[in-house]
Amino acid sequence: xxxxxxxxxxxxxxxxxxxxxxxxxxxxxxxxxxxxxxxxxxxxxxxxxxxxxxxxxxxxxxxxxxxxxxxxxxxxxxxxxxxxxxxxxxxxxxxxxxxxxxxxxxxxxxxxxxxxxxxxxxxxxxxxxxxxxxxxxxxxxxxxxxxxxxxxxxxxxxxxxxxxxxxxxxxxxxxxxxxxxxxxx
Length: 185
Fold this sequence. Notes:
Elements: E1 12-14, E2 17-21, H1 27-36, H2 49-63, E3 72-78, E4 81-92, E5 97-104, H3 109-131, E6 136-142, H4 148-154, E7 158-169, E8 172-182
Parallel strand pairs: 5-6
Antiparallel strand pairs: 1-2, 2-3, 3-4, 4-5, 6-8, 7-8
Helix pairs in contact: 3-4
């Protein structure tokens, strides 16, 4: 298992669920889910195996040894099977904030969207607030998934901003909704 130099603890667990430093073996599942869910991601074209392998070798591999990486990515596991991935991205080490990124197995979205989002948020908050002592974490979501907002609010994230007609989607500009949570520990 790769380890992040910036983290003292590498594995965060809740019951049968855990996040571990992103695993190379999960890259093709992650590529598949990203391509299936491209509509809500900041990804302009479907990924190829070559794209994904290059990203893992050129970007991900370099994150583990950094004192202050700009992102910390995890595989989200249920009983050692990868069912999603995400982490803290756009980390601002000066102001102590970061954006949360999370993509789950597309097949699980219909029945377990809320459950897996809540679990992932609880685990990533331990990384962000307990381990890294960040001040604030946020989500940045194209206003295309209304089921996401009640989940974020249930996890005590507050809607902080709506960027009106901010991103082009299917030839129309859509809003971006930002939810945030502050470190109260």
